[in-house]
Amino acid sequence: MSALPQAKTLPGHVVCDGNEAAAWGVVLSRPDMVAVYPITPQTSLVEALAQFAADGTLDTEMVEAEGEHSVLSVLQGACLAGARTYTATSGPGLAFMFEPYLRAPGLRLPMVMSLVTRDTLSPQCVWGGHQDAMSVRDVGWIQVYCESVQEILDTVIMAFRIAEHRDVMLPINVCHDGNYLSFGVCRVDLPDAAGVDAFLGKADTNWHVALDPDRPMGVDPLTGGGGPGAALFARYRKGHCRGMQNALQVIVDTHRDFGDRFGRRHAPLLEEYRLDDAEYAIVTIGSMTGAAKDAVDEARCAGQRAGLIKVKTYRPFPLQAMVQALARVKAVGVVDRSVSFGWNAGPVFQDVLGTLAMLPQRIPAVSFIGGLAGADLTPGHFARALETTAQALAGAVPIAPVWLNENDR
User: Fold this and answer.
1) Is residue 208 domain-resident?
2) Whole-number Cα distances in Å, 201 to 167, 205, 403
3) Are 374 and 129 within 8 A, CB to CB?
4) Mean pLDDT of 54-74
5) What's residue 206's pLDDT?
């Protein structure tokens, strides 16, 4: 691992948006190869990486591919050869790279990708939402969601350590909300570069499969079809599932070590907010959480025993942590920034429904959908969600999802 250029002393803090914060996380993580293609609202992240590479702040092999399919294909080859790799995409770009995206986790490639979340086509939309990320939630990548610009920078760094852990060896999406975080500007603190080097350690990707001319091997042979081939395929699938479950503890350990070293702590799996004596709670994910916390505070001031559960790690789903959180309340509302067309509800709501089956008691649950196509979710929207969830305690449970922005003017 080469040192950062001596002429480029990194600042202790910068004022930047979420896309640039992700780029600073890449600088500090020192990937061997970066390949990216611009797509709204991720484009300024690509521009920041290109500028950092041009002025010597980022020492990496920068690949300018002709599209997202080629971006991820190029990086898969580099990752198979043992390189630490990074990319970023959004919406239609994710759709274009779907074939290699689908292949990466099956090959157990520890890649890091920022997914700047965006609602999907059609109707035509270039604004933020979670539909792109939720559409690939069960492809086999780890998915983590950030609430703030600072959390983006810190989580990009942690993602390399999580993905490359020998008990995990899987690609990871660091998701941050298009518009609200991608272009939201604030001060962020940069960890010390030497400290990040020590935290990540020497890059050791693909220790079990790295391509080597002196040790030739076949990669991704045709498998299945019954008999021994089918058994081998099942073995790979089981190992993939085991790696995902191993990631839960690795994520917890990595967040703890990051906090111990740099003094900033982020909830690794779930964050429980004012949940100690709560009667009911809402579940959030991503940048909406700040406004939701304000609404919970206002409800508390009004004498309501409201609480909040924020999802940080979404895949693998932190089942046991969610069981423990939900066991403390008597009703729950789940706010999604995307839809599950098959369930007429939000995707996170589906996971919460599955979790409720693990509880000793039955509690009512309400699905809320809002913030689609860049629509704002305000404390007022969350106050409505809290009020509806409180009413569910008395048995008034909506059968259909509540659309929070439907009547906005």
Assistant:
1) no
2) 16, 11, 46
3) yes
4) 96
5) 67
- Name the one residue in this structure whose structure tokens are 């309501």: 304
Task: Provide the pLDDT confidence category of residue 223 given band limits of 50, 70 and 90.
Answer: confident
Same domain, 164 and 20: yes
Position 409 in a domain? no
Domain span at residue 310 reads: 270-403
